[in-house]
Amino acid sequence: MRILLESLPLPYLHCDATASHYLKVLLDAVFQSDSFLNEIIWKRTSGKSDYSQGAKHFPRLHDVILLFRKRSNAIFNPLFAEHDPEYVKSKYPHVDADGRRYDLWDMSGPGGAAKGNPHYEILGVTRYWRYSKERMERMLSEGRVIQPRPSAVPREKRYLDESSGVVIGDVWTDIPPINSQAQERLGYPTQKPLALLERIVSASSHEGDVCLDPFAGCGTLVHAAQKLNRQWIGIDITHLAISLIEKRLNDAFPGIQYEVHGTPKDLAGARDLAARDKYQFQWWAVSLVNAVPYGGKKKGADTGIDGLIYFKPDAKTTEKAIVSVKGGENVSVTMIRDLGHVVERERAKMGIFITLAEPTKPMQTEAVKAGFYETDYGKYPKLQIFTIEELLSGKKPQLPLLDPTAFKKAAKEDLSGSKQTDLDL
Length: 425
Prior knowledge:
The protein is α+β, with helices and mostly antiparallel strands. The chain folds into 3 domains: 12-46 and 57-79 and 168-252, Rossmann fold, CATH 3.40.50; 83-162, no CATH class; 267-392, Trna Endonuclease, Chain: A, domain 1 (3-Layer(aba) Sandwich). Helix content is 25%, strand content 21%. It contains 11 helices and 21 strands. Strands 15-16-17-18-21 form a 5-stranded mixed beta sheet, sandwiched between helices. Strands 1-3-2-12 form a 4-stranded mixed beta sheet. Helix 4 (194-204) crosses helix 5 (220-227), helix 6 runs parallel beside helix 8 and helix 7 crosses helix 8 (278-287). The chain is elongated, with a radius of gyration of 30 Å. It starts with 11 loop residues before the first strand and ends in a 33-residue tail after the last helix.
């Protein structure tokens, strides 16, 4: 589910067709049924992806976006798409000396005197007209009135580039899903296209308004709101999602300022998180070294791998470092030896050991004994140990050129003055 609220609430809820009818009933109870505005159909896939031989149903191609209105003065901005090329050729067949496409439109006043249309002569033709004589003379002086041939009925010249385009309705087929090759793909399983959230933000808010996404995921709504100069609040229950949103914002909007609440800021906060949920602690700790959680953040058997860091030592070949996280109060040299074995087993080049407790001297000695990973561009300690306290203070692993293979780097947005200001709520 995904919800957007702005200063005059106009909420959207995104779900698939298996749950939309149940959620519609719940939202009717929350917002009242007469506040319902649209059931938007977003075609998110093709028939091929949901079809198999012997299928017992039509291919499921769409998601549903429910739109409600809490207040009668809620913001709604109609949106328009470009005309289809064939429509342009058919409806705007003429091209003037400046290369602008145009068509000639009838200016006759429908209904004549009964409709109150003015009656006068223009270019030798007398009849009822759509426009007043003053406006017609102004259009004539601006070159907006064309007489195709002598004595023919004058027509209005309308340019394609002055048309708003095709109004966007409640069936959206022009926004494709994020496929495996999409440039904006970050590797998050439920990531939605940026264009989809930009459309929603543009339709239901103005610059400076506040957008809220309480199921932020990888932060597509937050990204869209920042790009369109809105203020925003993003909420998620996993540290993986929050860390990914931070990385996405920093990549797309260098120098952006924002606040993160609910993540550990000091050693005491880290200890509290480790005591409450070891998986959340691991995902958060892994994010401190910009690693990808192993196995797509799934809880499971301990394989000695909590995260992976990808890098390109020669700027061509992708290699990896294994990240191991320990949130207990006791650590030992055996853990460093185990990490070394995992590095060899996985054919990785390096290992990063993150510990909440202070490492022992034998652990540090064992890491040094592992030697260095040598490249043409420098050598790096093969096993590196970091405490949570060190990482919180800004210390980082020594690594070759990074290669963000799984959670890829968000494209930098060409914006100026992107700053999340204090919210006056």
